[in-house]
Design a protein that fits this description.
Helix 1 packs antiparallel against helix 15 and helix 5 runs parallel beside helix 7. The protein has one domain: Alpha-Beta Barrel (TIM Barrel), CATH 3.20.20.140. It contains 17 helices and eight strands. The protein has an eight-stranded parallel sheet with strand order 1-2-3-4-5-6-7-8, sandwiched between helices. The protein is globular and about 50 Å long. With 326 residues, it is α/β, with parallel strands linked by helices. Bound molecules: hypoxanthine and zinc ion. Hypoxanthine binds next to loops. Belongs to the metallo-dependent hydrolases superfamily. Adenosine and AMP deaminases family. Adenine deaminase type 2 subfamily. It catalyses: adenine + H2O + H(+) = hypoxanthine + NH4(+). InterPro entries: A_deaminase_dom, ADE, Ado/ade_deaminase, Metal_Hydrolase. This is Adenine deaminase.
């Protein structure tokens, strides 16, 4: 349709993307083959069939298992470069990506191999596709604060090449307050602060992310809608929420895209953006997310423009770069 073409034509920014969640089944087989790793699947279709999740944890179990094929610096490079090549086709011009360092270092992979593979691909992607990018070190919240501190220390040689730190993995039972000190330390180092909150967790987790972690963006934030005072605050602060429609559908945060709160959030004046989260696992990259949610909620051209603009406003880009792409 005309709206689909409009969406495809617009330059976009993506602010919520886990690079390990862009690992496509074909790539998983290729890396398993070259690294001599046995997979519990015999075909690409087997993998896609296995991607049926009842909640966040069911997804995370397969997500962490899948990334075990990532072994070498070249694997991290190839993973990242393939993602950039893919979103170039979606006219995505700027990305801020998370990586889950602890999910690799706990398997014995060197931190340097992980981050240098990713950073080298980001650099090459800018040269080849003109996509600007930032990298965010995301702490796994099911692990201890001490483990997060250790990971922050490992990142020391790269502080000037990191935009900030994030917080992801199993939300329930792991409130933002668990990471108060490591976020304070990250802030003192000049890093930006991001946290997943209100995906499965209650509104109080969003308050904690704001008040205790002092985050610069909220990832997901859907459940903020259960608390009017919280909504008012997020609106008045202009806090960016990085919403991920197909992720919400696949993880049963919503039962149907027609019941997704994105349009309500927009109408309330929340600074919502559209993102893909883990595109390989959730069945779509950034344009698919825009198109599927636009169709389900009957979004207008103005809605789409607002969402795209929110993406650039919530991004860490120079004004000159914004002018160039928008
Ligand atoms: N939520 C929490 N942890 C994650 C996600 C998510 O959507 N994707 C990858 N790790
Ligand atoms: Zn996420």
């Amino acid at each position: 349709t005309q709206l689909h073409e409009f969406i495809k034509s617009l330059p976009k920014a993506e602010l919520h993307l886990h690079i390990e969640g862009s690992l496509e089944p074909e790539q998983m087989f290729e890396m398993a083959r070259r690294n001599g790793i046995a997979l519990p699947y015999s075909t690409v279709d087997d993998i896609r069939t296995a991607y049926a999740f009842g909640n966040l944890q069911e997804f995370l179990d397969l997500y962490y298992a899948g990334m075990s094929v990532l072994q070498t610096r070249q694997d991290f490079y190839d993973l990242t470069y393939a993602y950039l090549q893919r979103i170039h086709a979606d006219n995505c011009r700027h990305v801020e990506i998370f990586f889950d360092a602890q999910a690799h270092t706990e398997r014995g992979i060197a931190f340097a191999d992980v981050i240098e593979g990713i950073l080298n691909a980001l650099e090459q992607g800018e040269a080849d596709f003109g996509i600007t990018s930032h990298l965010i070190l995301s702490f796994l919240r099911h692990l201890s604060e001490e483990d997060a501190f250790k990971t922050l220390e490992q990142a020391e040689p790269y502080y000037d090449r990191l935009l900030g730190v994030g917080l992801d993995s199993s939300e329930m039972g792991h409130p933002p307050s668990k990471f108060e000190r490591v976020f304070a330390k990250s802030n003192a180092l000049g890093l930006k602060l991001f946290a997943h909150a209100g995906e499965e967790g209650p509104p109080i987790y969003v308050y904690e992310a704001l008040d205790i972690l002092k985050v610069d963006r909220i990832d997901h934030g859907n459940r903020s809608l259960e608390d009017d005072a919280l909504v008012n605050r997020l609106v008045s602060e202009g806090m960016t929420l990085t919403v991920c429609p197909l992720s919400n559908l696949k993880l049963c945060v919503v039962d149907d895209l027609k019941n997704h709160p994105l349009k309500t959030m927009l109408d309330l004046g929340l600074a919502v953006t559209v993102n893909s989260d883990d595109p390989s696992y959730f069945g779509g990259y950034i344009n698919d997310n825009y198109i599927r949610i636009a169709d389900a909620l009957d979004l207008s051209k103005d809605d789409i423009v607002k969402l795209v603009k929110n993406g650039f406003d919530g991004a860490y880009m120079s004004d000159a770069r914004k002018c160039e792409v928008m």
